[in-house]
Specification:
- The protein has 144 residues and is α+β, with helices and mostly antiparallel strands.
- The chain is 56% helix and 16% strand.
- The protein has a four-stranded mixed β-sheet, sandwiched between helices.
- Helix 3 links the parallel strand 2 and strand 3.
Length: 144
């Protein structure tokens, strides 16, 4: 069993400068750094988590995300990097990325538009989820 070394903390500004050309060339609209790198909770099992938003018309997002992940690993000479597509994630995941993450690539207009859309959807959904939970709790209390 191999023991992972503690990952060094990468400055988000460094990542922004280093990878903006690659993100732009890859057809990415937005990229976020999130997880332990942002929270400062870096330990032996930490990795670098990057979430990207592809153009809606982009084909083969998974394949392109894996290729991007490989290119970032090469440039950083780091093994523990995960790149995921925001296009294929749950609303809850996307909300947490924009809430806790740092946008390291993209135009301000695109970022504001995307984050506003996710926040509006999340707030609508969270209201319905709370209503459901209250109704469920009432039904359980009624049965007792």
């Amino acid at each position: 069993m191999s023991v992972r070394k503690k990952l060094k903390r990468y400055d988000w500004q460094f990542l922004r400068e280093k990878f903006s050309p690659l993100f732009k060339k890859s057809g990415i609209i937005l990229a976020y750094l999130f997880g332990s790198q942002v929270k400062g909770e870096i330990g032996p099992m930490s990795d670098i988590d990057i979430a990207v938003l592809w153009n809606k018309d982009e084909k083969e997002k998974l394949k392109k995300s894996l290729l991007l992940q490989s290119r970032i690993k090469e440039r950083l000479r780091a093994e523990y990097i995960e790149v995921g597509s925001l296009n294929d994630q749950t609303l809850s995941f996307c909300y947490n990325v924009i809430k806790d993450g740092i946008c390291i690539f993209g135009k301000e207009k695109d970022r504001v538009e995307y984050e506003t859309s996710i926040l509006n959807e999340y707030l609508d959904f969270s209201y319905l989820a709370e209503e459901y939970n209250r109704a469920f709790s009432r039904a359980i209390r009624k049965e007792k």
